[in-house]
Write a structure and sequence with these properties.
There is one protein chain. A two-stranded antiparallel ribbon has the order 1-2. It has a two-stranded antiparallel sheet with strand order 3-4. It has 10 helices and 4 strands, in the order ααααββααααβααβ. It starts with a helix and ends in a 5-residue tail after the last strand. The radius of gyration is 34 Å and the shape is elongated. With 263 residues, the protein is mainly alpha-helical. The longest helix has 45 residues. A hairpin with a 6-residue loop joins β1 and β2.
């Protein structure tokens, strides 16, 4: 009888241990599933789908452009548009190999350099350790050079004025540079990042209506002097706005006698 009691007691003890082990194993499995689920959620958040390289570029650099706007007053929209255009949305050689997103040449640069064909073969360009330093150097490049000083008198909302001002100050040789910047800003709504920085101070800027230039077609007997008197403009100014080297005219020649207000 005693043996039977002892056997039954041992049997109960064994079954109890197995039950506890089963419970522990189940908890471990649940914990493992939760970890796997978190990893899966993090992966989904990290994997972002972009329609093109330009959208990816904007998402990666918009915060930096806005920070530069806060510090130096250059519209984030302009910085991003220039970066997209100059770097090929981050895929150009200068941006890939030198983190140079704005095509800034050496100009007495003492840091690392890279040589690249541009207006001329193997021109010297600045090389940066990280893209953020390229954005900072772009801010310094514009804010510290006198030829760009007029830009900082423009409203921060006036991205069109900034685009045209950059070309006028000699930033690029491409005649269509302003239009390209404006097109990028409007296509990707980059002005929204200016609005975020300015907050309540943001006021949508409307370019003033410009008056078209007036012209006159030369007829037989006309002289620069007679035309200048007719339109109340000096002969010298008439020559300047039409690019004339002397007073000679030809019948049928079209002259600007009143420049447009945008000029």
């Amino acid at each position: 009888m005693k043996r039977l009691v002892i056997v039954l007691g041992m049997l109960v003890l064994v079954l109890s241990c197995k039950s506890k082990k089963g419970i522990v194993t189940k908890k471990t499995n649940d914990s493992s599933k939760q970890v796997d689920k978190k990893k899966s959620d993090n992966t989904k958040q990290a994997t972002k789908v972009y329609a093109n390289n330009t959208e990816r570029y904007i998402d990666e650099h918009k915060a930096t452009a806005q920070q530069e706007m806060s510090l130096y007053g250059i519209p984030a929209s302009i910085t991003l548009a220039q970066g997209i255009l100059e770097s090929g949305s981050g895929k150009g050689r200068l941006s890939v190999e030198a983190n140079n997103h704005f095509g800034i040449k050496c100009h007495g640069w003492s840091g690392k350099k890279i040589y690249h064909d541009d207006d001329e073969k193997q021109e010297c360009f600045r090389k940066y350790k990280d893209a953020k330093y390229s954005f900072r150097d772009h801010s310094l490049f514009l804010s510290e050079r006198k030829r760009y000083s007029k830009l900082f008198k423009l409203k921060k909302e006036d991205y069109k004025g900034w685009a045209k001002g950059l070309k006028a100050a000699g930033y690029a040789t491409d005649r269509k540079y302003p239009q390209k910047l404006i097109s990028l800003i409007e296509r990707y709504k980059l002005y929204a990042y200016d609005k975020e920085v300015l907050g309540d101070k943001y006021v949508k800027f409307e370019s003033p209506v410009t008056q078209e230039a007036s012209t006159y077609t030369v007829i037989k007997g006309d002289t620069l002097y007679s035309i200048s008197k007719r339109y109340n403009i000096s002969v010298e100014k008439l020559q300047n706005i039409n690019g004339l080297r002397d007073a000679s005219l030809s019948i049928g020649q079209v002259l600007i006698v009143k420049p447009s207000s945008k000029n």
